[in-house]
Amino acid sequence: MRPPKPRITKPRLVWRWTGKAWTPFHRITWTESGKRRAHEIKLDWRGDPERLDELYWAAQSGQHDRQKSPACYSWGECILAWRKDPTVQGRLAAKTKADYWRVMDEICEKNAGKDMRKTSRAAVRAAVGKLSDTPRKAARYAQTVSILWNYARRELDWPLGENPAAGLAKYKPAKPYDPWPAWMVKALDTAPERVQTAARLILGTGQRPNAAITMRRDQFRGEWMAVRDEKGDQELEVYCPPALRAYVEALPARGVHVLPKNLTEPQGYHAIERAFRAWRQSLGERASPYSLHGLRKLAIIELAEAGASDAEIQAVTGQSAQMVAYYRTKASKKRLSRSAQERRGRT
């Protein structure tokens, strides 16, 4: 009597009765010259689900022994290298890592064995366009492609051309983040210590909240500090404001990170953000429009008010020229209003 077919299901996994047992195959299909083509790999799972999972993902990423000629410089190979890189994995928050892995699984489903060198900007744009109804997913997809491309060029030394995903992560919030008002910055003294520390790191470094929150103590080097440009996937050395340097030095060392979860791991963005929201609520309704991201925007305004050029602001914060120009206008309007009112008072 034929036993029931195993209930293990995955994309491209096909079960076939071979006379004595149910046998799994990894099957891909495509159309060539108007004809339907298929290629199958028998997965010798030996009745072991864990072994089947290993063989399946090897086939998905183009690494199975039976795959005759896996493409050099394939997406699957790049993703595998990125996931195994301890330096890359060590600097990512758990939630961020999970988001990237999820998108990479989607990329592997259709492109694991494809040559990255043959990827066109039009193809990436089309893939992102299919996600246009969910802007955050579209942005994450484009960002993940960009990260993998940069990793392959810089870390694996692959002969790739220009990044086909550059500039395609178009998602923006419904309106720009509001920079914090002075009264809210002063109120930081009433916030929990980890909220205070996160806020001062974001404002002092000009980094994205996640990059600031996960900073290590060894990133502060006397007058200088190493800040992370997450979008460009690079580390920059910039001048550290004396107030921030003194604040960090006064914090008790409880681990490798400025905001430690334990001796070797940082606290996560979401834990800090929850604590921030609870504190913000205690400030009343007028604090509700402001987020941790607004501190980064305030950093641009303070630098502009201090007379920094756009190039200098970009060097400190890593913000785009367009974003710097947008928030510079806020600083300019404040200066102009003060000048106008002072002249008005003298007449």
Automatic annotation (TrEMBL):
Any one Gene Ontology BP term: DNA integration
Keywords: DNA recombination
SUPFAM superfamilies associated with the record: DNA breaking-rejoining enzymes
Electron transport as UniProt keyword: no
Annotated Pfam families: Phage_integrase (PF00589)
Keyword Hydrolase: no
Tyr recombinase domain location: 172-341
PROSITE patterns reported for this sequence: TYR_RECOMBINASE
Molecular-function GO term, any one: DNA binding
UniProt-recorded name of the protein: Phage integrase family protein
Native organism taxonomy: Bacteria, Pseudomonadati, Pseudomonadota, Alphaproteobacteria, Rhodobacterales
